[in-house]
Amino acid sequence: MTQPSRSFLFTPGNHPRRVEKAFTVGADAVILDLEDAVAIAEKPATRSLCVEALKQPRACRGYVRVNSIDTAFCFDDIEAVVGPWLDGIVLPKVERAADLQAVDWMLTSLERRHGLAPQSIDLMPIIETAIGHANARSIAASGGRLRRLSFGGGDYTRDLNLQWTFAEDEIAAVRAEIVLASRLANIEPPIDTVFIHIKEHEHFAASARKGREFGFQGKLCIHPDQVAATHAAYTPTDAEAAWARKIITSFAAAEADGLASIQVDGYFVDYPIVEKAQRIVDLYDAVAAAAEARA
Prior knowledge:
Layout: E1 7-12, H1 16-22, E2 29-33, H2 43-55, E3 61-65, H3 74-81, E4 88-91, H4 97-114, E5 122-127, H5 130-134, H6 136-140, E6 150-151, H7 153-159, H8 172-184, E7 191-192, H9 201-214, E8 218-221, H10 225-234, H11 238-256, E9 262-264, E10 267-269, H12 271-294
Parallel strand pairs: 1-2, 1-8, 2-3, 3-4, 4-5, 5-6, 7-8
Antiparallel strand pairs: 9-10
Helix pairs in contact: 2-3, 9-10, 11-12
């Protein structure tokens, strides 16, 4: 993991002030929206606004959420926004591996047109329908430039007529399946759903913690205020990183003496525990490096 992917902050692509602010609040990535946050009549004109915004100096990655592949807007969205200014495309309502493969082919062609390195443009699908849930494993295994999945609880609960509660028990099964599908395909851990109650800060924090417990690596955000809480949930604390380093160091010393299972302050440690500790250290260091680069 070379860059942290804890927070992906959505902002409407046709609101310049919101776009400008979004790039300053410390999110790991900003997603300029061409889909749900933009009125149909505004979609074509918003494409160039997104490009101009992405060309400006910024301290985090810049993505565009295009319209879904079954709309009349998707092809023109992608063609208009791809260029050296873009870090990635977010593709909503993905239901089949073929959806991703078609967009991957488009991106490959556009990378050639713009003289970009192959697969330099990220492609992140959102699983947000019953069909997408059912096909999550084949979507995750579709190959190409796919690095991670993401989950959209708003459309998912609408599609299945679920009551989206603060406890979020009704989306536990799809969360678990998306994490499992990602692991089976050997791609990065996924990005968890947005949380639509902007003023419910405690419930948002609980949702972020729940996503981390399920195995997600970050969360989609819809308001700048949600970024800090997301980072609090998904960033190892100084104490956690220090403990992880102690596990790694102690185990390395024991392994040199031929031991592969030890106790560290009464905590059993073997190879799987060391691997988890290394993940904590890697993320902690990646976050620190990203913060230093912004400074």
